[in-house]
Amino acid sequence: MRFAADVPDLELADYQRAVRLVLRHPLITASWPDERALPRVRRFAATLRQDLAEAFGYRLESHGRVVRLIRTADGLDPQRPAVSRTGKAFDRQRYAYLALALAALGRAGVQTTLSELADAVAGDANRIAGLGLDADRGADRRAFVDAVAWLEERGVLRVADGSSAGWASDPRAGEALYDVERDAVLALFRPPRVLQQLDSVTSLLERSFVSSGNAERRSAAQAARRAVVERPVVYYDDVPGDLVNHLRGQALPADLHRLTGLRLERRAEGVLLVDTVGWSAERFPGTGSVAQAAVLLAVEIAERVSDPDGRRARRMPAPDPRDAQDRLTVQVDLGLPAAIPLAETDEPETEPQRDVLEERRLPLITDSFLRDATSEILQRYGSAFGAAWHADPDRLRSEATALLARFGAVTVVPGGVLARPLIGRYRATVAQVKQRPLF
Predict the structure, then answer these.
(1) Which residues pair with 271 in a beta bridge?
(2) Rounded mean pLDDT of the chain?
(3) Are strands 270-274 and 59-63 parallel, antiparallel or unpaired?
(4) What is the Cα–Cα distance from 14 to 1, expressed in whole angstroms?
């Protein structure tokens, strides 16, 4: 046994729960995600620190009453945004306010008020072209309160008196007093590089050079394990060849089962970790109108691809996932402050070498098919979807398609989506939708 070697069999289930807890919640405080999380993780802290470093290349740090998992990122992931309490994904303004609030809290004492924090953030934000923070503007106040609420929810700020909701409505009528959890601020506000050293966001993904064959194999094995626990599904076509060897190997399922208690499902096209314990932050199929529409669309897409009597779906080359990374890198790099000089480098710029991927052709499901399928779903399961969805079927189609894309079931392309192998799981599925009560 390479992992959990010193954990008794009677405690293995508790240890695996602690592993899943840390992987899902990289920041754990006295109150986040709940009061029981921190004692569960601290109980196995030494073994967790060793196993997470060896298995994934992650670093587990403890600061007083806070535990932080420092992940090793293999790429930019736009599918895991910070979200507000209402479930809305953060935009650039909210991310900026969150970063500036953390910087201000790093200079603050053990207590602060919401208005004091807003003044500190505004002082920095107003020096940034295109950002700013004006407490008299409702949109700015709501965005700032969303950032503060994110910190409240995780126990970085603890409400001692008042509420941020009143300040969001009227800064002259509402106020909140916060206790600042210094350990949590320290754990979060740990930039790995100073801004002047970055010429691209990809600099944050740089790895130390490994020269020996054993080190390369160990690094590839860690990247393979990271891919499995961080992605809903891992297709062999989407990862480098050295990772494929580890994904196909016999050690990976045993290692991940020993660590997480979850089983690895392997198919000809790739692998996925089957979530049987509610570990994932988002599950598919899930609950809610969008999730219901998504699984029903998956059934329709699967039948369209495999229908022996119908017209065969046209196949198109699958886009190279590295191209999406390049586009995302360009978008993020546009936010680099132009006024800050970048570090000088004597190394000439070279185009990164890429392995040539074999062309993959996947079935194209057109937007017109998806529109018709969504209309049929709304007609067939009318009372299961609210009036707002019936009034805007295109929005339902768009959000359901985006959900399928997040889980690797489809790839969005101009004119439609490409059906990926995961769609095959829903072939010949009989879907049952819970009807809404009439009264």
Answers:
(1) 234, 266
(2) 88
(3) unpaired
(4) 17
Nearest-angstrom CA–CA distance, 341 and 202:
17
Domain 92-188 has CATH 3.40.30: no
Each residue's pLDDT tens digit, 24-36: 999 999 999 999 9
The answer on pLDDT for 359 being more than 70 is no
- Nearby residues of 1 by Cβ (< 8 Å), 6 or more positions away: 258
Q: Sign of dihedral through CA atoms 254, 256, 257, 259?
A: positive
CA distance 168 to 271: 46
Assess whether pLDDT exceeds 70 at residue 439.
no
- For residue 330 the two structure tokens come to 């360009």
Strand partners, 274: 263
What's the per-residue H, E or C state across 228-263?
HHHCCCEEHHHCCHHHHHHHHCCHHHHHHHHHHCCE
> How confident is the model at residue 23, as a pLDDT?
96
Angle at 414 between CA 411 and CA 419, to 5 degrees: 30
Q: Is 157 exposed, middle or buried (0-12, 13-18, 19+ CB in 10 A)?
A: buried
* pLDDT tens per residue, range 243-262: 999 999 999 999 999 999 99
Tokens of residue 307, six digits = 């229908």
